[in-house]
Amino acid sequence: MHKITKVSRIVALLSLCYGMFLLFPGEGGSLQSTDVSYSAAANDLAQKLAAALPKLTGYVLSAESGTFYIDLGEKERVYPGMELNLYREGKPFTHPVTGEILGRFETPLGKIRVLEVRDKFSIATQISKVEDLAVTKGDRVRMTGARIPLALPTIETPDPKGEEAKALTRELALSLERTERFEVWDERRLLSALQAEGISGPISFSDPRVLEIMAKKLNIYMLGMGKLSGLFIDLQVFSTATKSILTIASAEIRQIIPPPPVQVAKPLAPESVIGKESIGKEVGKEVGKEVGKEPIGKEVGKEVGRPIATPESINPPESARSAVPGAWRGPKFDKAMRSLVVADVNGDRQPELVVAGKYQIMIYSIDPTGYRLLYTTPQDDGINVISLDAADINGNGTPEIFATSYANGRLNSFALEYRDGKFQKIWENVSLFLRCLPTGPGGSYQLFGQVLHLSEIPLGKVRQYIWSNNSYQEGPRLDLPSQVNLYGLTLMDLDGDGKREILTLSATPSRQTGEGAHIVIFGADGKKKHRTSEMYGGTELSLDFATSVVPPANPTTPFFQPDSQKPVTVSLQPRLFPILGKAELYACRNIEPAYSVLKDVRFFEKSKLFRLAWDGDALVPVWESKEFPQYMADYYEGDFDGDGVQELAILLVEEVLLSADKSTTWIYKLN
Helix/strand/coil (H, E, C) string of 291-309? Predict the structure, then answer.
């Protein structure tokens, strides 16, 4: 796997900056001061956390073989991962003077964690129990209505003196207390209590021993670990009893920026997008207008989590200095993530966001209170995830997750499916590149696999894979032109004649590894039909293949590898995403720096997204976004909130030269 190194990036950037300094000497500058208000962000975060822990009381409907059915479902705002207390009601007790019944005696029975949520009920598993007491039908469950004890250590911030961290933590603690849902333990109180329990020296609050003391000795139900990342506060909330993540919440900090002084533009400064009304424009039209429609920029459809708006009404996330209007931001990662897909992968009739890094896959639920981590695969150095797809190939109503992995010189792809309350590998060590394409009835996705044949470089033959006899089996062969692989490929009927054309980014070899390519269209007969004049795609993912060569026995004998046997690099271009029912598709374009210093060093500093339409003769852009100041690793379209309007999920990677890369997911509403 080819991936640009940090050293190469640093050398490239320093060389570039030095060259630009020689070309454009100018005056120095200073950072502009800003006034930051934490109150609104802290209140937003507290309200989200309170909403994620509603006061609930319900009944056990069934308790057999460790699986519990309870009468709390979607309308009660139950979600997978929620933990509830089990108890049994006993005899009533009365006031000694008036005789009034005041309540009932209760016997604790342990705790359950919710696995699946349906309309009127949920399925859960028991995570703690009281010895010799079995749970039966009619026992009770609840999320306490009393204040919930929450440990809140000082929030992590870049401020080395800690003043910013203290101010932000204090605001959040006050906001949480004002919800009347939480009893907050600040760091000072927490450290004092832990020291009284014999914990001394540097304390890690996520240490299992510390969490156990919180749960059993201090009766603290939750631990909140906060971090300030740019303009956002992220809070992960853990159960002290089970050490599991209960919920993840995020809020944006509003900044008040004074008008900047008038300065002469410097060549290295990126173009500001602050104050612009839209992120996208129709090609050849005014900014913010759809072809043949009124100007846009207002929100469409119902709110889900963060308000969702059209891409045309949003500033690129990392460039915006104030609240990003209409942007729905997903999870952030302190590493470069590779791919994403959105689908209902656990059968709860709600879409999940699935994101893959190199060694791990993470699955998040999406609901009005934000994203929650439902599942993560173990960190596995034996895999190297390249791409993700999801489709219901085995026909059981729940899409499988297909991950292509190439590690240690071989393909070891796999499929995950939600079974028996957890995600399981149902296909593994698969020697195929896997992609799902919308070639089924009504545009449904079908599974295709491409073998790796060194004699057929860049890649081998492509076949559809179907579900038969409880396993994936080879299906019909998909005939593709030479040099075409599954990456940067889609099939769609452009002319309305019932025959699908082949659209690909891999038919024209790049001049350099990973750079953008022309979209080439082939007819059903395999003949080239059209090639775009503009370049699209651009990727940092590529594979090096070589046929086996036997060197001379004598190491001193001169040896020259023939060109035909030298390693061949194959770029894995981003997906082309067809728009259902239209002769249109989405394509991204990753943009390199204007000045390339090192040959064959590939990294991208910006990206854009395009909607392209077939006009009968050519693919023409009909909409384009403004530039995102990050590399676009992947994107995915679908109706994520069920309102009939499509959304677009985007995975952006910020390449940080002197530290780990960072990734962010965003979702925008589309027209």
Answer: CCCCECCCCCCCCCCCCCC
| DSSP, res 628 | B
Using DSSP bridges, classify how beta strands 422-430 and 122-129 pair: parallel, antiparallel or unpaired.
unpaired
Q: Quick one: how far is CA 606 from the chain centroid?
A: 19
- Residue 540 is predicted with a pLDDT of 83
Give the model's pLDDT for residue 145. Answer: 84
- Token code pair at residue 535: 């370049």
Distance (Å, whole) CA 191 – CA 199? 9
Residue that the structure tokens 């079908």 belong to: 446
| Block residue for tokens 């002319």 | 495
Contacts of 251 (CB under 8 A, 6+ apart): 41, 42, 44, 45, 48, 232, 233
Tokens of 94: 């009365």
Tokens of 71: 């009468």
Once rounded to an integer, what is the mean pLDDT over residues 349-365? 92
Phi, psi values for residue 76, rounded to 5°: -90, 5
| Token pair belonging to 367 | 């609901």
The label of the residue with tokens 């395999």 reads 526
pLDDT given at position 565: 53
Give me 266's structure tokens: 């410097």
Which parts of 33-186 fold into alpha helices (H)? 39-51, 163-178
How far apart CA 200 and CA 221 sit, in angstroms, is 22
Amino acid at 47: Q
Look up residue 474 and give its two tokens.
Answer: 């080879």
Angle between helices 163-178 and 39-51 (to 10 degrees): 50
CA distances (Å), origin 662, targets 358, 633, 655: 13, 12, 7
Write out the two tokens for 445.
Answer: 């996705």
Residue range 123-147: mean pLDDT, rounded: 90
Is the separation of the CB atoms in 666 and 650 below 8 Å? yes
Do 309 and 303 touch, CB atoms closer than 8 A?
no
State phi, psi for 599 to the nearest 5 degrees: -70, 140
Instruction: Count each helix (H run) and each strand (E run) in the chain, helices first.
Output: 5, 41
Q: Which long-range contacts (CB under 8 A, 24 or more apart) does 452-460 make?
A: 452/411, 452/545, 454/545, 454/546, 454/547, 454/548, 455/547, 457/545, 457/568, 457/570, 458/483, 458/485, 458/506, 458/545, 458/568, 458/570, 459/433, 459/485, 459/486, 459/570
Q: Please give the Cα distance from 494 to 583 (Å, whole number).
A: 5
Which pLDDT tens digit goes with each residue over 9-34? Answer: 555 555 545 444 444 444 333 333 33
CA 164 to chain centre: 28
- Strand duo 148-152 + 182-186: pairing: parallel
Compute the distance between CA of residue 540 and CA of residue 459 in angstroms, rounded to an integer.
Answer: 18
Q: What is the DSSP letter of 156?
A: B
Q: Are strands 400-407 and 584-591 parallel, antiparallel or unpaired?
A: unpaired
Distances, alpha carbon 324 to alpha carbons 286, 313, 321, 407, in Å:
22, 10, 8, 39
The position carrying tokens 């007969």 is: 525
The bridge status of strand 339-343 relative to strand 352-356 is antiparallel
**CA 89 centroid distance within chain:** 43
* Collapsed DSSP state (helix, strand, coil) of residue 556: coil
Amino acid type, 241: A
Cβ atoms 153, 225 nearer than 8 A: yes
Q: What does the alpha-carbon distance between residue 643 and residue 620 come to, in Å, rounded to a whole number?
A: 29
Entry field: residues in the chain: 671
- 151 contacts 224 by C-beta, under 8 angstroms: yes
